[in-house]
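Figure 2 data, in text form.
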Amino acid sequence: MERPGPSEVTGSDASGPDPQLAVTMGFTGFGKKARTFDLEAMFEQTRRTAVERSRKTLAREKEEEMNREKELRRQNEDIEPTSSGSHVVRDGSKSSSRDTSSSESEESSGSSDDELIGPPLPLKMTKEPSNHIEEDILGPLPPPLYEEVEEDDDDDGDSEEEENPVQKIPDSHEITLKHGTKTVSALGLDPSGARLVTGGYDYDVKFWDFAGMDASFKAFRSLQPCECHQIKSLQYSNTGDMILVVSGSSQAKVIDRDGFEVMECIKGDQYIVDMANTKGHTAMLHTGSWHPKIKGEFMTCSNDATVRTWEVENPRKQRSVFKPRTMQGKKVIPTTCTYSRDGNLIAAACQNGSIQIWDRNLTVHPKFHYKQAHDPGTDTSCVTFSYDGNVLASRGGDDTLKLWDIRQFNKPLFSASGLPTMFPMTDCCFSPDDKLVVTGTSVQRGCGSGKLVFFERRTFQRVYEIDITDASVVRCLWHPKLNQIMVGTGNGLAKVYYDPNKSQRGAKLCVVKTQRKAKQAETLTQDYIITPHALPMFREPRQRSTRKQLEKDRLDPLKSHKPEPPVAGPGRGGRVGTHGGTLSSYIVKNIALDKTDDSNPREAILRHAKAAEDNPYWVSPAYSKTQPKTMFAQVESDDEEAKNEPEWKKRKI
């Protein structure tokens, strides 16, 4: 078979595809051009179709209105209807519909003349320009255009939800966790929402596992990490593997998820004046917080007027020290502190009512300082940043809640009063969507119920509140992943609020589990009191005869040892007296303080006088030139005293 020449090949291409090639490839459209799509023309066609449909709907509505008016006229005037106008409209609509149908039929007939490959185009994709239709089409078709009506409906639904953020509050269901009888002063939830940790005034820290609990709601572990100090703050790290424990002591602790100690901060020297020169806190702690980005870094504030940052790897010294000061440069005690959401700022509220914000890397001067944020002398219990990082909320001891914009930190954005607080750790938090601010209120015992109050962030209106219990609400925590609210109260309860439709996992996992029934083998039908040595295995064997026991005692060297006689004096016969048993005491009692010579001490001294006078060796040579001669007074006898007696004494006698 000979190959065709170049002229033959070009001739075949110009005339059309080779029939042999079509048989070989399996389809007849081989060699045709791929169709190109003009997006502007497609959009224009879609717009025209929408306008045409809207005109038809308007015409229908007008026709219905006219029919209604005519029916009313018939009822009122009892006149035969004149429906000429309506026929005109109908005829017009019919003619328009006929025109559109004829145009569509013409387009379809025109397009049917050309050979198309693939599925037919939808009506919205058909185009009017004839130059594109005449070309052959190859390749897949573009996706159909989405209708704008559905998007509008979704936008309307979103706007309704945005207008009413109260509907997102998960408060339809609740569970109660019994921590103890004293105030729950600390709450912590890990980032995944699997475990909750609670701490209180009873020094206990309890661990709750939502996936492992049943309907009995019992903690799986309880411990006292700080001995006899009240728990002030508990917080999981950003990775969830460590817990920061801040108590009433001067040393913060870090424990792992199971409660074992990881590190303990060092205590500083309280006798150093400049607190920046000591290695740790020297007074009671208030609160602490983990860095949101850097693993292993956390912060604490204390009564020693400092805010210190720490690293878990270096517990022997703090990383940096921030010293809050008044406008006059005097020390002031920080009562609470926190990191910003990005971790670049450190905010602290002080006892003089001021709020001071530092750059994390600059410890000398604060970046922002507002000196009258709350009333002086009241302990601001909480400061927290919003999720967008621009707004700061502060819960004051003056029964107020305030919002601040850190971009214009010269006055509060909003302020709400009438929120009583009696605890130095009453906190506030933002909702996960940043549209609500939540805080708790305190009450006296038997004088009402504590409430959880919700404020809208945009207007700061009091939009919602929940009655928690007949005690104060101290802690509140709104987890963003679970969409559940945890509350710590003043009567030892920790409550979890959730909604089955809006919340995820958390309390929903343990509510559905039934309480495990105790097996009969695990319980005793009757409580027995077993006395000591009542069982045979603990009972002492009774002696059969005293003679054998005496023989055994005779062979025992300890029992048959002769009693020691009482010690007379400092110690004799190789035994030491009762005043000590050391070698030095033995030497002192037997040598240096030996009192065997009971003679006259004057005679004992003068016994060596003659030898010292004949052979002076120690003292006399030193005073040979300066020592005066010894002169002793003469002792008179009794006869000489009687002679020298005066006469008046003799006469009296």
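Caption note: The two ends are 188 Å apart (CA to CA).
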